[in-house]
Fold these 4 entries.
Entry 1:
Amino acid sequence: MQAVIRIRGLVTRFGVQTVHAGLDLDVMRGEVLGVVGGSGSGKSVLLRTIIGLNKPVAGTVEVFGHDVLHLSDPELRALEKRWGVVFQEGALFSSLSVAENIKFALRENLYLTPELMTGLAASKIALVGLPADAGDKLPAQLSGGMRKRAALARALALDPELLFLDEPTGGLDAIAADALDRLIKDLQTSLGLTVFLVTHDLDTLFSICDRIAVLVDKRIRVGTPEQMLQDSHPWVRAYLQGPRGLAAQDVGRERG
């Protein structure tokens, strides 16, 4: 399998606090990788480092074979067209409608007629399971689950190969979270996406993730869900084999 993301020797610090100390990670093409860890372990920091928003102290980060940390601004912008990002709070423009949020991504990167942009925005809205009239609404007029889908539609605007999701089910009730998990897996399968998914949702881990990456001791431990259930690290065992972890395993088996 081909590594879409390749990280070696990553060191990240904020002042005197070291978040990552020699972290290595490969993300393989076509997989859903779930990234978990304790509070302050650097999950979101890792995501932001991969997409070039955070500069580490040392190490290399390659995406599609390109060294993200040493690209020029035009080179990085060109590479960014190959991935989509859904940040934790969605980061939709509050003053723009859902359709205009999607068109913004199209307008910034492509030369399209207004009619074509309108059609593409409508197709992305339908792709994520939103009703057509959601396109005319502002983010504040949508439910939490619908806003997550709208952010996902914008992330898919340029037909990316790689999708970054930061806590996609955060703040959702169990039914909405389940529906979003199923949508992510369906999109990953139908579009051939590689998905880098930061989460604390154990149901998500055992339902849709091909491998789990656990940030502990400033490094990362990776394996399939079955392999990670056998991991001997105390935090990993407590997290995955605790009461909530056992319940999530049952949910994953039911969904599978």
Note: Residues 92-152 form one domain.
Entry 2:
Amino acid sequence: MKTDGGLHGIGALARHTGVSVRTIRFWCDSGVIPVTTRSAAGHRLYDARALARVELAATLRKLGLGLRDIRDVLEERVDMADVAAVHARALDAEIRALRLQRAVLALIAARGTTTRETEMLHELARLSASERQRLVDDFVADSFGDVTDPGGIGERIRQVTPALPDDPTPDQLHAWVEVARLLQDRSFRDRVREMAVAGAREGNAEGRPFDRERGRAFAVSVSEHAGAALAAGIDPASAEAEAVIRRVLPDVEPAGRAAVARQIETFTDARVERYWQLVAVINGWNAFPSTTPAFQWLIEALRAHH
């Protein structure tokens, strides 16, 4: 119904706006759309301003705003830009959650998991960014809180943490789940603490073959020579291994090899190396090959030829 005074009945208002009569009536009862006046028979009548309010309310509702926010915007009690900003942030959070859910489903579909593994995967994956960071912070505080090891493992883990992106690939999600398990593993925490304490104690001790200044060059040498010997199937106790040792550690005499083997063993751990490989996957860095087997081969060779 439309009156001569330009007023609309609720049915006409619904046809003009595409909003159902039931919804308009509910909005009226909720105070979102006030009735302009009533007919002699008591029917609700609305003017052009009410029509515009219904159209705006419908748009805001589609954007996810609740009735309280819609009413505040229509009454100009809050700024539309502020309300939009809040809801945009909420939608961002929802989108991130949906992307994680999609990654979880893609991972399950691609690799297959048991019911228990699926539950764990979902539980760890749905942690917020702040909750994931708290997991890392708790690991750091528990493992290195009272250890000062400039340049050592504790400092590196403090500075370089896994940062799962908002739209992770299945590989990144799988890597995060594995990292989360490591961070909560008591034996892993004890092992990295042992390495940090040893590094802090030894510092830059003279003769240390893998201190901060020479560590990279030493690792490259081990990978090149000991890695090649391992790949060639050379026995660490064989005579050929002696030549490899001298190429990697030319300044270490046989009498000192057992001590050097202990030093290297302290800082060689497949799980720690795996942690860094997983962080690289999560953070989108280039992958790097495993060097732990080469170091383990060198340790055995040093012990066999001291």
Note: The first strand starts at residue 8 and ends at 9.
Entry 3:
Amino acid sequence: MRDALNFPMPVSERISFLYFERVFIERDGHSLVSICGPERTQIPVGRTSVLMLGPGVSMTHAGAALCALEGVLVLWVGEAGVRLDANVVD
């Protein structure tokens, strides 16, 4: 298995951004899972540049750590993008 810190995927090959609201996000192996009721959606965190988290999103510490490992920018945004906070981890 590749080491994410030594061989990051180039930004030009990544998905530009994914937006979520009113979900719970947790780590499942080496990916993230978005949970909304009985529905579970895999999030390809290693192929994503930015995760935009809107109102009602909860993320586990393990999920945030995986974003940091993969070099994913996490943005917390308000409704209609009124407020914006960013977390960049090197």
Note: The chain has one helix and eight strands.
Entry 4:
Amino acid sequence: MTSILSYPERGNYGKSNWRGNTSGYVIRDIMDHFKPTLFVDACEGSGTSGDVAREMGVEYVGLDLYKGQDFTRDSILAELPREADVVFSHPPYGGLIVYSGEVWGDKAHPGDTSRCDTPEEFLAKSQVMLLNQREATRPGGYYMSLIGDQRGGDLGRGNFRSYQADFISMMDKKELLSVVIKEQHNARSSHKQYNGSFVPIMHEYLLIWKKSRNSLFQVAFNIASEHQAMVATTWRSVIRVVMMNLKEAPLNVIYDEVEKVASALVRNNKNYKAKIRQQLQRHHVNVERGVWAVAA
């Protein structure tokens, strides 16, 4: 197994008429590389992972919404004989393929992530899924998710969303082990011709985390701390860019420029002027009263 996977054929695993199937060769690579004694698929779909597990003699548990297990509501660990070595997911997303009420069942299911109204709803449910996977994994074991990016659809025409970046940002970076790029074959976009600047999406990402011995609450604290640190870094970077352009300026001009380039930061912080002064005091030069210059 390497950081790039490419299999033109899906193999004789699962059901070929089940759209969005993961290639059985990817699952085989995962099992061959990590050598689990218990492999769990939290979004089993048509049964690809189970077919590979039986072929390789690996103990397996397959869960799915259509079988009555909802990863946003039900504990994965409660369905297992013990903590797993590998817990895998390939969640439906973005409404690209709608499952409940179409691929299976006769009506929509509230736990179906292919029916989320917004990317934010999908991400909130996905974080629960990933933490649920983590809880079902033994310390030192691996939890992983296969996810792609999205353009258009519910996002709006031409808009792009990098779900792999979102998944990485909402989990503990200390546990992130690897990012594997999986080339997509036989996707609908591969059969079309595009003009202009449009770049078709022809890959997914296999995100792999290694579970530490930290508790769920310690992991949550690490995630929250990472986001707080990112906010602080962003303020510092924005003000640095403003000062690079101004070279030297009085506070009122700096305030105005920050408002222009960082309106989102300003909207979310009523005390943004105090935040600007704090960053200036820490990282820039006070030329005279109320006048600041960019630091060397």
Note: Helices lie at 24-34, 48-56, 119-135, 163-169, 216-246, 251-261, 263-267, 272-283.
